[in-house]
Amino acid sequence: MGMPVSWGTEIPGLELWREETSSERHLQVIYPQHSKLTDKEKTNICYLSFPDSNSGCLGDTQFCFRFRQSSGRRVSLHCLLDQFDKDLPVYLKKDPAYFYGYVYFRQVRDKTLKRGYFQKSLVLISKLPYIHFFHTVLKQIAPEYFEKSEPYLEAACNDVDRWPAPVPGKTLHLPIMGVVMKVRIPTCHDKPGTTQIVQLTQQADTHISVILPTVHEVDLFRCFCPVFLHSQMLWELVLLGEPLVVMAPSPSESSETVLALVNCISPLKYFSDFRPYFTIHDSEFKEYTTRTQAPPSVILGVTNPFFAKTLQHWPHIIRIGDLKPAGEIPKQVKVKKLKNLKTLDSKPGVYTSYKPYLNRDEEIIKQLQKGVQQKRPSEAQSVILRRYFLELTQSFIIPLERYVASLMPLQKSISPWKSPPQLRQFLPEEFMKTLEKTGPQLTSRIKGDWIGLYRHFLKSPNFDGWFKTRRKEMTQKLEALHLEALCEEDLLLWTQKHTEVETVDLVLKLKNKLLQADREHLPVKPDTMEKLRTHIDAIILALPEDLQGILLKTGMT
């Protein structure tokens, strides 16, 4: 019995027992039972699975956290996820160094307990950043689990164990305790900004109970609502990988806001670390709060008042109040000087001395304000805000994409008998010169110091991560084109003009090429691979029998 490895998921049930003088948290039960968590991971999970005592979360609360995987952990458990990773958008690919924790926490008054409260969390641990999906799963099973305990959890895990693999682009039907969820995981081939709507068909879907329009997106407008006047400045801070702290009243508000910030530069991936909910007990607490060096490129979501003092040297702090339900609009916060932030009780605001590179886009503010006045649903406001962020990010990234594409060697320079050519070097000043004619002004109405923004971005972790990803993709494309060039050659004729030693060397190199194509998921046409195998077989059969036997045993043919 257990969760399917293909979903990279484990469900620990955590119960909190507190004596009057203690704040100990205990791991009560783990499913599947063969799951291996290190002591450090267990400690992190235990502390991250409960709100700080000052949060005062009564009733049921859902939130998300992210924690670092212990070094030395075996990664083979999640190797099945790798085959799906290649078809995912870059921002949904799993990060091998981190786990996500999805929490359903309940706190209710209970006079029979010493502390006066029943407190318990059900936590789902996964490598996958499918926030909306896993919160929906927990919403289906946690309330019943708190009433019926372990047998119910075991039954839920048995349901999940029968789920199909999370293949991007496929519509999946996922049963969970009498409910069937219908979802579609996005692919890297989807047009950015579009959601492939999962349709409900009249006859076949009579048993469908829940249709999820998204697996990963949060309610963007609800999270940005208190700060939407400054949303463009926050987009710049996230794009540049600036150290950023979100101080919130509860873990649900801190985690939603951090995830919304990370999401606002989509389809770019945020390559630095981010912690939707961070506590003083986190194993990276000292690393991230030290004053002996500059604050790291990370986004932290916190609720403990202690952080107002510990992190007051950080350059950018967002202090938010309670997020309002859909339809209610909180007062817009102001940008304030950092020196005015004394405690977590300070008024909501964006505390920073950062001067944005771009002029504020008044059009989007008017559009959102009009939506507020007309009581436009939060979902519709989120669509407007998400499209605005997408267009802003695309306007910024298209000139970079265009320049990087020019670094690719011409296809005619690829020779089957030489190693694939190298990409040209990325030269910042050469790129800057391209902006005069093909810069963001072609697609964006926003004015400002775009050049300054690009110069800052080129020094950021997000540029480093983006360029490494693009360089890897382009290098793989060159390898694939080289393979195709080899396939077009008459290799058998070549071997007739060369020695047996050279022929054996060619066969071994071709086999290595096939292995590399398979291992690195090179973008090679299926018939190219088949042609190459046919070439290899023909060459081997033309060799003496003793060499045939040896070569047939080495690798694949």
Annotation keywords:
about 550 residues; alpha/beta; five-stranded antiparallel sheet; 14 strands; disordered N terminus
Could you describe the 3D structure shown?
This protein is an alpha/beta fold. The chain is 40% helix and 15% strand. The protein contains 18 helices and 14 strands. The protein has helices spanning 39-48, 79-85, 131-148, 150-161, 220-224, 231-239, 251-263, 285-289, 306-310, 362-373, 378-405, 428-438, 450-457, 461-487, 491-496, 500-519, 526-541, 545-553, and strands at 9-15, 26-31, 59-68, 98-109, 117-126, 171-176, 179-184, 210-211, 244-247, 273-275, 298-302, 316-319, 334-336, 349-352. The chain has a 6-stranded mixed β-sheet, with helices on one face. A hairpin with a 7-residue loop joins strand 4 and strand 5. Helix 3 (131-148) packs antiparallel against helix 4 (150-161). The radius of gyration is 27 Å and the shape is globular.
Question: What is the gist of this entry?
Answer:
It contains 18 helices and 14 strands.
Low-confidence stretches: 1-5, 13-22
Instruction: Give the structural class.
Output: alpha/beta
Helical proportion? 25-40%
Tell how many strands the DSSP assignment holds: 14
Shape: globular
Radius of gyration: 27 Å
Task: Characterize the largest beta sheet: strand count, sense, and whether it forms a barrel.
Answer: 6 strands, mixed
Mean pLDDT: 84
Strand order, biggest sheet? 10-11-9-12-14-13
Q: Alpha-carbon distance between the termini?
A: 38 Å
Domain UDENN: 9-477
GO molecular function: guanyl-nucleotide exchange factor activity
Family: Belongs to the DENND6 family.
InterPro entries: DENND6 (IPR024224), Tripartite_DENN (IPR037516)
